[in-house]
Design brief:
By secondary structure, the chain is an alpha/beta fold. The protein has four domains: 2-68, no CATH class; 92-267 and 280-295, 3-Layer(aba) Sandwich (Rossmann fold), CATH 3.40.50.300; 321-401, Orthogonal Bundle (Helicase, Ruva Protein, domain 3), CATH 1.10.8; 406-517, Orthogonal Bundle (Arc Repressor Mutant, subunit A). Helices cover 51% and strands 10% of the residues. The protein contains 21 helices and eight strands. It has helices at residues 25-31, 39-49, 55-58, 92-102, 124-141, 159-194, 207-223, 234-245, 259-266, 269-275, 303-309, 321-335, 345-355, 360-376, 384-404, 408-422, 430-444, 451-463, 489-497, 500-503, 509-513, and strands at residues 114-118, 146-152, 250-257, 284-292, 312-316, 428-429, 467-473, 479-485. A five-stranded parallel β-sheet has the order 2-3-4-1-5, with helices on both faces. It has a three-stranded antiparallel β-sheet with strand order 6-8-7. α12 (321-335) packs across α13 (345-355) and α16 packs across α18 (451-463). The longest helix has 36 residues, at 159-194. This is ORC1-type DNA replication protein. Residues 110-320 form the AAA+ ATPase domain.
């Protein structure tokens, strides 16, 4: 939701100011005159008379009521995960460890590769970005060529895409360096053509040598070719990246966030190539900083990659409730207006997030959502009830996202369970779900899986927290799973029906009846 604006921000109030009022009463008067008035005359007559008529009501738009309340937020952006704060409470030790490793880059040497581990919301990415920004700032201060490049491997999850994105970043940076260099040399050239002594303080012996250098730089720039996001052989992409990185002297830190997603999708070829680059580079040096939620992802790496990549490891433990409270308080001081939070809001947000394995991201989402709900209520303070409502809303949003991204077969199984629950069936068993599932598949022309596979899909839904599947004994009749929904029925059904294949089913009642079929 967009931040509210106070009256001073919302623009002039046109309802009572004659300068802004357009009335229909004067239109009627003009229409009764013997001559048809010019349109401009009508407008200016209306502005001059100041009559308002019913324009008060007519001028009120969709957002007017929403803009009447006082804003609660001062700067909402500081509560978003993408924000990198100037200070990270309770992460000083990890930040100092990173800085100790990376400081060698400022001496022109290659820093050790770093692997950062920790659960979601433990400050890994924020801390790494903070250290990286400090590193680049300090490198400019001491005029040491040092760069950090960030790649989110959850989005850029193949070797081709990672190398292409990195290659294009360095190609663009090299082009900027060449442009600056040419501009400087052309300035010297223009002065040297008038006075040859201008070359004495330079590395060039003659005007011809200077012109040759400018021509060579322009040729280098022309040789740069951006890598398309598809279509090239991987070897060619790697070669372009290699040449772009090694174009001039610099130390490069490549930050691979969610590095486990890259390994999961594309294997360890990318990491192998990046970790072995330094033996071939002539001008530059490359270091890798990997960030992962999975402490065991290196178990699947080639031993050679594992040994070269995991030179330094830093673990980020979960936050406890008191640490989360400090983090929230620091952000809230910037995010909200003075007395916008009641005393119990931050402790409650911290307590909820502490239950979620110390997830600071969850705590910030709760606080931001609670503030948005308070603004919608047009109250001037965030209360405990707003936090509890935010907790329910975030949980529902999570469920919606999980259900929306389920594979089609899992959606059909879940839809079968929903149909049974909506029709009052209790203690749903696997056989009933399978009977409805089978008929739904036939209706939408989907492949019918075996009952054993459907049972596995139910177990997966159970692991995701979408259903609750309990194994119960039926005595001599064996064991079965009793299944019930763990998520809101209406909202989940709506998400499933937004899938075009399931949405095409007009009448579901025959499928519910199918639970009695053998």
């Amino acid at each position: 939701m967009t931040d509210s604006l106070d009256d001073s921000d919302a623009g002039p109030d046109t309802s009572e100011d004659p300068e802004y009022s357009l009335s229909s009463d004067d239109d009627t008067t003009d229409a009764q005159s013997s001559q048809t008035p010019d349109l401009d005359d009508v407008v200016f007559d209306n502005l001059d008379t100041g009559s308002t008529g019913d324009s008060d009501e007519a001028s009120r738009g969709l957002f007017d009521d929403l803009l009447e309340g006082e804003p609660i937020f001062e700067n909402k952006e500081v509560l978003r995960p993408s924000y990198t704060p100037h200070k990270l409470p309770h992460r000083e030790e990890q930040i100092n460890n990173m800085a100790t490793i990376l400081v060698t880059a400022l001496r022109g040497d290659t820093p050790s590769n770093i692997l950062i581990y920790g659960k979601t919301g433990t400050g890994k990415t924020a801390s790494a970005k903070f250290v990286s920004e400090e590193l680049e700032t300090t490198s400019q201060k001491y005029e040491v060529p040092c760069e950090v490049e960030y790649i989110n491997c959850e989005v850029t999850d193949t070797q081709y895409r990672v190398l292409a994105q990195l290659a294009n970043k360095f190609i663009n940076k090299n082009a900027d360096v060449i442009d600056d260099r040419i501009e400087t040399l052309e300035d010297v050239l223009s002065r040297a053509r008038e006075d040859a002594t201008e070359l004495e303080a330079t590395e060039f012996e003659s005007v011809d040598a200077l012109e040759s250098e400018i021509d060579a730089l322009e040729a280098d720039k022309d040789d740069f070719e951006e890598v398309p996001m598809t279509g090239w052989p991987t070897d060619r992409v790697y070669s372009s990246f290699f040449d772009a990185v090694d174009y001039h002297e610099r130390v490069v830190v490549i930050m691979l966030d969610e590095i486990d997603k890259l390994v999961e999708k594309s294997g360890d070829d990318t990491l192998y190539n990046l970790s072995r680059m330094n033996s071939e580079l002539e001008n530059s040096r490359v270091s890798i900083m990997g960030i992962s939620n999975d402490l065991k992802f290196t178990d699947f790496l080639d031993p050679r990659v594992k040994s070269s990549l995991g030179e330094e490891e830093i673990v980020f433990p979960p936050y406890d409730a008191n640490q989360l409270r400090d983090i929230l308080q620091a952000r809230a001081d910037v995010a909200f207006k003075g007395s916008a939070l009641s005393d119990d809001v931050i402790p409650l947000c911290a307590a909820f997030a502490a239950q979620e394995h110390g997830d600071a991201r969850r705590a910030l989402d709760l606080l931001r959502t609670a503030g948005e709900l308070a603004e919608r209520d047009q109250t001037d303070q965030v209360e405990e009830d707003h936090v509890r409502q935010a907790q329910e809303k975030i949980e529902l949003d999570r469920v919606v996202e999980v259900v929306r991204t389920l594979p089609t077969q899992s959606k059909i199984v879940l839809f079968a369970i929903i149909l049974l629950e909506k029709n009052g069936v209790r203690n749903i068993n696997t056989g009933e779900v399978f009977n409805i599932y089978k008929n739904l598949c036939e209706e939408i022309d989907a492949d019918v899986l075996t009952q054993r596979r459907v049972t596995d899909l139910i177990s997966e839904l159970d692991m995701l927290g979408i259903v609750n599947a309990v194994v119960v004994s039926k005595g001599r009749y064996g064991r079965t799973k009793e299944i019930s929904l763990s998520v809101p029925t209406e909202e989940t059904e709506a998400v499933l029906l937004s899938d075009s294949r399931l949405g095409d089913i007009d009448d579901v009642q025959p499928f519910v009846q199918a639970r009695f079929d053998n």
